[in-house]
Amino acid sequence: xxxxxxxxxxxxxxFGLGSSGGSDEDVFRGADQYNFAIVLPAGGLQCYWxxxxxxxxFYLNFMVQLVTGVALDRHLSVMINAPSSLIVxxxxxxxxxxxxxxxxxxxxxxxxxxxxxxxxxxxxxxxxGVYSDGQEKIEKQKEEDMKEINSTLSIIGESTNRLQTxxxxxxxxxxxxxMRRGSDFYLLQSNHSYVxxxxxxxxxxxxxxGYLQLYYLKRLFNTNPTQTDKPRx
Length: 233
Fold this sequence. Notes:
Layout (H helix, E strand, L loop, with lengths): L7 H8 L17 E8 L4 E8 L3 E12 L8 E6 L5 E7 L1 E7 L4 E8 L8 E11 H14 L4 H70 L13
Helix pairs in contact: 2-3
């Protein structure tokens, strides 16, 4: 795996370091989700890491919002590696979604390559994270133990957990739609600039052609009063 332009700072700032020598419960799990935009230079490669535990579901949504430079290829090469360096997901498109069940605990590497564009950069919006069904089962087991004390609180707690799950997935879909809205905005700006530029060029060509036609037509009727030659027309 090529590790050119790897962003190690993000690993420390966003996801932190796991505690060494502790139990599995003491290991830093990271946040549920992240969403931000990055800029890949021409031919650039950037990698990020996110921690996931066995039994969780890992997801990644990406979309190319803006491409600048000479080459305008919107394809982005994406690859996800497991902690054992095995490839667990890959894509090569302008937008896409990758999701899989985590089979081993550790930091998963996400690499984004702009090798399709050697003379142009691209702006990419990312949304990734993990969610766990196993954690919900643990919460449900705790709720069953509480039913003997107060069944009403158990029902409220179960409803709250379900609501949190629904809100989490709602935010996932919202972030994906926000990526699409950003991509449409940049496409609209690009089309507007293209139409305006070509309209100005065509208007200039029409004015210049009209002026030249009048100029040469006028020269056909020019006569010299000092000569006795007949007019050319």
